[in-house]
Amino acid sequence: MADPSDEPGVHFPLRAGRRGSTPTSRGVLADSVAGIDPELAERIRSADGWRTHYVDHVVAVTEASALSPATADEIADEGLASLRRRMVLVDADGAETPLAEAAIDRPGEEPPFATESVQGTERPITELVVPYRGSGLSGEALLAQLDAWVECGTVEPSFATAVGEVIDHPEWLALPGRRVALIGAGAEMGPLEALLSWGVDVLAIDLPRSRAWRYKRGLATKGAGRLAFPISRDGDAGADVVHQLGPVLQWLRREGGDAPLVLGMHAYADAGAHVQVSAATDALIEQLGAERGVDGLATAWLATPTDAFVVPPEVVAAARESYARRSGMIRWGQRPLRSLSRSKLYAPAYRQAASGAGGIADILVPQQGPSYAIAKRLQRWSGLAAQAAGRTVSFNVAPATWTRSVTKNPVLAAAYRGADRFGVEVFPAETTRALMAALLVRDLSAPPPSRSHPEGLFSDQAAHGGLWRAGYDPKTVLGIAALTGLPGSLRDRLSRSR
User: Do 50 and 99 belong to one domain?
Assistant: First the structure.
């Protein structure tokens, strides 16, 4: 079997016979702050044990972004520029060209895709319905649940307001006049099923796996919208945006037509491949954005709650109040563990003073790995750049969710099982999909909120599951949550294996 790193496509540069992700990821992060904090940039470049210490550096870059609106935009611009200089497009002869200089659109070099489309057979659903704990919540029942989540600190008040707007404007659900292209259309957290049920016109890009495409065709048939997707000359459905970047661009350009296009990035990949697909999507946005102008292309992503974020002062205050409200018995029981661990267990959240923009919610989970963190950071920088350019941007924090990528990681699965002991709710995947699709519709249909700081793009409308408002620093109770959740997690694994 051929090595995928030798195939044409978007890659890390070849150095000493390897396409390692660490030099590029570390270099991009350092370059993002080099003009603002040269000392921090040098610490990142010279850091030993990158897989162990990358978390501290990503948090430090977030802290730098909080300093001012101009700083946040500069970090995003410099980080993206570095990514485009460092990542390369490899051609059929093995020659490398930096993405910043590469011509990704080369008609005739590769055969263009044909198109297959499936038109739904059902009537559009004209009311927002959110599946939750065995019920389909809508109308007043959904509003009551939104209020309950706000009361518990599970979501931000602006999240409930935004979903409430969609409840009040069901005509938004079909996104009339727009066409939505989804990179990673079959993602477990993606909006595909909801959009098709609402009657949206969807262009789907996902890897060419036959079983997965049979499922997508079935979703489209049972929906009310139209699903269109690329077909190779061999008759295979799907496309690989990393290794077929030029043909994907040509297909999106052709199928997007003259309608306002939404380009959503929902793909997930393991390790360095996540950075590659994020870089490929950024290249598509750059090219299509230049062709379509500010009003002709909107962009959409989902943010993970397990990252480092600039959060408003009221979130910091709520977390500190939660820590202060602990009962005397809990304080007494935790004191020896805190002492023995030198405050590495049960530490309060937001121990550092908040800046003018707010505090830093450091929820990065080391087990997810540096490539995941860098890929999500690249996506966030793309969102900030699009926002600064005046483009319509949907970029919402989704709650911790029971997905396949979580359940296959035993530490995360156990921690999620025990999360409720610390005021964190882990959502079913079907609930998250419906809620995030609703936020996407809202962002594309209503004016954006006024933001005093660019990082508000992520803190507005956030559904963090309670991680941001929890009294404890999440990383100091992750092990405790995993221990308490381990029995339930083992039962889950045994049940799935039967």
Answer: yes
